[in-house]
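User: Show me a protein chain along with its predicted structure.
Assistant: Here is one chain, sequence first, then structure tokens.
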Amino acid sequence: MKTFSPTPKDINRQWFVVDAQDQVLGRLASQIAHRLRGKHKPEFAPHMDNGDFIVVVNCEKIKVTGAKMADKMYYRHSGWVGGLKATSLGDMLADKPSRVLMAAVRGMLPKNRLGRAMLKKLKVYAGPEHPHAAQNPQPLNLPY
């Protein structure tokens, strides 16, 4: 018996919607990364992008544990001397809440072009509305 290796015609992508209200950031991000990568499917292959599309709503109401709201920092650099900018998690949630979840999921995906393709299947919205009703996303209940 030969080992099954999936081809692009074997990929069957579905759309799911996740409500992030009162979910813990890291636990939610790990479940989303698992689904985006396609590891929940029996035809998973590490060299292919066969994951599902995930739509996350209410990401502004996400929870974190401990003192991370003040202590956790996000850094970016302009490329110029002295161009390091730091933003706390609390400020980032108030200003751009979708970036917090995107950054958490990005860190859990492969660091190559395959990971960048997987991240494009993640759609994050701060409020309860999303423009993907035509894709008929199914609600996804996560274990924790």
